[in-house]
Amino acid sequence: MIGSLRGRIVSKAPPRVILEVSGVGYEIEMPLLSVTRLPPVGSETFLIIHDVVREEGTLLYGFIDETERVLFRLLLRVNGIGPKAALAVLSSLSVPEFVRIIRDRD
Q: How many CA atoms lie less than 13 Å away from 72 in the CB half-sphere?
């Protein structure tokens, strides 16, 4: 499993980012709000990773911090929510908004 990656941002095409680590470019899907918080292309960054291994290949989901990944994994526990839907939820709500909605049961 891949837990995190540190490397240079090669491209940003939301919701995907390509991060080059030791000469290898990793395609990583991220929440849209997180992509906007990344430094510019060419900069180094650190991402927390959740990987999904499937028959057709490995998918990488990236997050700015551990809190985002924890929320993503909590969403995956909800019946009927897969990685794409969980990413969509995190793309439309910031972490503080998400926590407030859960806390207030909205």
A: 25
